[in-house]
Amino acid sequence: MGLGGCIILIAVGAILTFATDWHMQGVNLDLVGVILMAVGLIGVVTFSSIARRRRVLLPGQSTVVEDDETRGYRGGYGA
Known about the structure:
Layout: H1 3-18, H2 29-55
Helix pairs in contact: 1-2
């Protein structure tokens, strides 16, 4: 589930909690809305932390470039 799906969950949960006055027997729509908002919020936090972890480059760290010798390739025909 991406960021868009999480935002949709939050929006649907908010609509069910705050904008409806439906009453269904055996189902508390306010509670369902709160649960959807909580799941959406957890998804946004998780997605943000994963995206931040992918982009972080620590100080002093640079892109690693391997040349052919470090990978074991010696050139030639199977030599």
